[in-house]
Automatic annotation (TrEMBL):
<dbReference type="Pfam" id="PF01066">
    <property type="entry name" value="CDP-OH_P_transf"/>
</dbReference>
<feature type="transmembrane region" description="Helical">
    <location>
        <begin position="102"/>
        <end position="123"/>
    </location>
</feature>
<dbReference type="InterPro" id="IPR000462">
    <property type="entry name" value="CDP-OH_P_trans"/>
</dbReference>
<dbReference type="GO" id="GO:0008654">
    <property type="term" value="P:phospholipid biosynthetic process"/>
</dbReference>
<keyword id="KW-0472">Membrane</keyword>
<dbReference type="GO" id="GO:0016020">
    <property type="term" value="C:membrane"/>
</dbReference>
<dbReference type="InterPro" id="IPR043130">
    <property type="entry name" value="CDP-OH_PTrfase_TM_dom"/>
</dbReference>
<feature type="transmembrane region" description="Helical">
    <location>
        <begin position="73"/>
        <end position="96"/>
    </location>
</feature>
<protein>
    <submittedName>
        <fullName>CDP-alcohol phosphatidyltransferase</fullName>
    </submittedName>
</protein>
<keyword id="KW-0812">Transmembrane</keyword>
<keyword id="KW-0808">Transferase</keyword>
<feature type="transmembrane region" description="Helical">
    <location>
        <begin position="130"/>
        <end position="151"/>
    </location>
</feature>
<comment type="similarity">
    <text>Belongs to the CDP-alcohol phosphatidyltransferase class-I family.</text>
</comment>
<keyword id="KW-1133">Transmembrane helix</keyword>
<dbReference type="GO" id="GO:0016780">
    <property type="term" value="F:phosphotransferase activity, for other substituted phosphate groups"/>
</dbReference>
<dbReference type="InterPro" id="IPR048254">
    <property type="entry name" value="CDP_ALCOHOL_P_TRANSF_CS"/>
</dbReference>
Length: 195
């Protein structure tokens, strides 16, 4: 069964602007990679920053229009995961030698979330995407990683981002093991169960 672009951005028979904004983040991966491959790193970073901004805008648009939905939240999470994997490619295209120096941090940053999703599915039968503060901080650091590295040349940001993302995933597993299911819980010490 194939799904068209129209089916993704339409909800309840009408265009949902928040979904269009979300999908644009994924679509912008292609021009970023093209700009990078033609050595237009500054332009690639500019498009990347615009794409990253859509992660803040889509939820705001959904809430302002009164059209926030579970479908939109799932779509946002799926596009975020694709975009997160693309960040690894952006980094490696710009700084090919970073992988040899920071392979463990990169494994935590990009492999850790995949292992977490597998663990959450094995433990609960669902893919659990909690909105913990640590997860938000980890996402911010992950999305800021490439531009910060480009602007500052400080490779320590890779280890910092990996530490926060790793701790966040451990925190989420601990919450699941306590019986936690509330995706909007702020941290692992929140009340267990649905709100």
């Amino acid at each position: 069964m194939s799904v068209s672009y129209g089916q993704i951005v339409m909800e309840e028979g009408s265009l949902k602007l928040a979904n269009v904004v979300t999908v644009s983040r994924g679509v912008l991966i292609v021009p970023i990679l093209l700009l990078e491959s033609y050595h237009h790193l500054g332009y690639a970073i500019a498009v990347y920053l615009a794409a990253s901004t859509t992660d803040l805008i889509d939820g705001w648009v959904a809430r302002q229009s009164g059209r926030a939905s579970e479908y939109g939240a799932r779509l946002d999470a799926i596009v975020d995961n694709f975009f997160s994997v693309a960040i690894l490619f952006f980094l490696l295209l710009s700084y090919p030698d970073v992988a040899s120096r920071h392979w463990m941090a990169l494994a935590v940053l990009f492999g850790g979330p995949l292992l977490y999703l597998l663990a959450s599915w094995l433990l609960t039968g669902k893919l659990m995407m909690f909105h913990f503060w640590s997860a938000k901080a980890g996402a911010l650091l992950l999305f800021a990683l490439w531009p910060v590295l480009y602007l500052t040349v400080w490779e320590g940001v890779i280890g910092l981002a990996a530490a926060v993302v790793g701790i966040s995933r451990i925190e989420q597993i601990a919450f699941i093991l306590r019986g936690g299911t509330n995706l909007d819980a702020p941290h692992m010490f929140a009340t267990v169960g649905e709100p």
